[in-house]
Structure formats: C-alpha cells, structure tokens
Amino acid sequence: MPQPFEIIPEFKTSFWRWGVALGIDCMAASSISSMLGSNLFVWILSFLLIWMGLRVVVTAYNQGQTLG
User: What total of structural domains would you count in the chain?
Assistant: First the structure.
C-alpha cells in the first residue's frame, strides 16, 4: 500500500522557475501589446493573443521551451 505522499508526482523544475518563466512571458507580452494599442480593450486582447502565442505556439516549435 503506498504512503500518502508517494502519490504526489515529482516535478522536474521548481515552482519558483515556473513563476519566473511566467513573469518573463507576461512582461514580454505586455511590452509588445502596450506598443500596439492605447485602448484598454485592444491592449487586453493583444496581450492575451501574444501571451497564448508565447506559451503555446513558441513552445510547440521550440522543443518545449518558452521564452522564459
């Protein structure tokens, strides 16, 4: 019978590294989207599209590595 803490999977990276990578991706997306529009709606929409591009599309073509 497994112990209670044996069912928790081990992660290859720490949560700190995930947080830093997320912060770098968000800063890159916000700096690009701030140049695209002065309207708040345009900024949020462009931020989400750029952020999804950094987190999904770039990761798929870069062997699992994001910008961060």
Answer: 1
pTM over 0.70: no
The 10s digit of each residue's pLDDT in 32-42 is 898 887 788 98
The span from the CA of 52 to the CA of 56, in Å, is 6
Is residue 2 in a domain? Answer: no
Contact yes or no for 26/54 (Cβ under 8 A): no
Residue 65's SS3 state is coil
Domain membership of residue 26 (yes or no) is yes
Whether 30 maps to a domain, the answer reads yes
Range of the domain at 36: 22-59
